[in-house]
Amino acid sequence: AGSVIHALSGEQDIRKMGGLARRIPITFVTFAIATGAIAGLPPLAGFFSKDEILWFAFASGAGSTLLFAMAAATALLTAVYMFRLLWLTFFGVSRMDAATEHHVHESPWSMTGILIVLAALSTVGGFIAVPHFLEPLLPLPVVEPAMQRFHTVILVASIAIAFGGLAIAAFLFGGDAHRAGAIRRRFVPMNRLLSGKYYIDEIYDALIRRPLYWISDRVFLRLGDRALIDGSLHSIAALGERGAVVLARLQTGQLQFYAFLVLAGIIGSLAWAWRYV
């Protein structure tokens, strides 16, 4: 994804992409391999992990038909939205504006080189067995012996789920994606809910961010920091400044006034001492 964003000079909205397969071929090929791996297409690495998950969700002691159904539905949705991402980004007509389309370029080798390495690992990683010394750290669930006869069925189901997701994405988003558009127009409330990401950001903003901002601004900043802390310091400084102004009046520069103050001090001291004689 980062390489695509770089190729489009920062654009991140897939609704403003399309037709990039020939423009950035290295990114496209590596992106397609990664998409297939995440969707679980054989013989990519993701296929082996997804098949194991589905198998143990169905056949292990902690598994069940319901758990398998939930895992299979999740795998199908994953395949659909990953191939949707691939289709809207690299196939179909270009939906880029003129400025973005003019600057489309393949990413540098510092980025595409990493993508090639990751794509290669996604291709062959499923054939690499877990080292023996790691097996105690990765214990597998125990499969019920009676369930072994269903292994081929689960394997076929796993493959069908991956290709089913590909077929659904191609059907809905192929060409100008008019079928997906028709569904969106038919289910406007649902589309609004999903497009708004269930309004989690808005709920978080209303219930958490804004109250915390209000408390931070009104209580801690204005009352605590500015009124109490800054106000106390400013009051002490103002008191010192006013005291200095009063005491400064004693410095008149007149010798007679200073002599008078000394005499007054002596008389006051004698009067104080006379009380204790």
What does this structure look like?
The chain is built from 11 helices and no strands. The chain is mainly α.
Strands, helices and their partners?
Layout: H1 2-7, H2 25-39, H3 45-59, H4 65-90, H5 98-102, H6 109-124, H7 151-173, H8 178-186, H9 188-195, H10 200-248, H11 255-274
Fill in the keyword field for this structure.
277 residues; mainly alpha; 11 helices
Quick recap of the structure?
The chain is mainly alpha-helical and 277 residues long. The protein is built from eleven helices and no strands.
The whole-angstrom Rg is 38 Å
> Low-confidence parts lasting 5 or more residues at pLDDT below 50?
none
Question: What's the N-to-C terminus distance?
Answer: 97 Å
Strand content: under 5%
What are the secondary-structure elements, in order, as H or E?
A: HHHHHHHHHHH
Percent of residues in helices comes to 55-70%
